[in-house]
User: Fold this.
Amino acid sequence: MSIKDNLIAINQTIPKDVTLVAVSKTKPNEAILEAYEAGHRVFGENKIQEMTQKWETLPKDIEWHMIGHVQRNKVKYMAEFVSLIHGVDSLRLLTEINKQAEKHNRVIPCLLQMHIAKEETKFGLDTSELHQLISSETFAALENIKVVGLMGMATFTENKSQVRKEFASLKTIFDGLKQKLPNISVLSMGMSGDYSIAIEEGGNMVRIGSSIFGARNYS
Ligand SMILES: *Cc1c(COP(=O)(O)O)cnc(C)c1O
Assistant:
């Protein structure tokens, strides 16, 4: 199947109000252009340098999402153009994004990343850190970022009920957070292997790479 066929097939399985982020990390411009020519405009990358190179060389109506872990000293490279930063997991990072956004006269939409998986290695906040962050005066004073929702990654496991439980827990946190931040609307959860479960549990943004572009070769 071509990239275009994969996109058509996946779009048929997701509701209209769910945003598909095509995760193009490690893939060349030609692959992205194939998806672009099929009408797709929202792409996700996990390395700031790679995303910036692609932004410089590809059509300017592409929306670039940063889905990976963000190093504070690299925020400046994407502040001009990034559409949504999914992996924000500290007030220090949010403060740096705010600072760099201000230089470009922008308000950058961000998602706070929650730690919902069993694995120690996955990044993200726990609920007490989340509430501490959003209750702080520093957070209230940031005018060049806008928290528009939450992101999370489930445990990498064949155990579907475990994955479902983790997504459900993120949805519960999301609904609770809405009481304090009524304008949040985005719940980013689900990848190639588990996006159907994520949607069933209330996710409205899925990040899909290998099912669109094929397996990645890391060399
Ligand atoms: C790579 C990646 C994805 C996409 O993974 P696939 O299994 O290829 O769909 C989604 N989210 C994040 C945060 C990623 O790093």
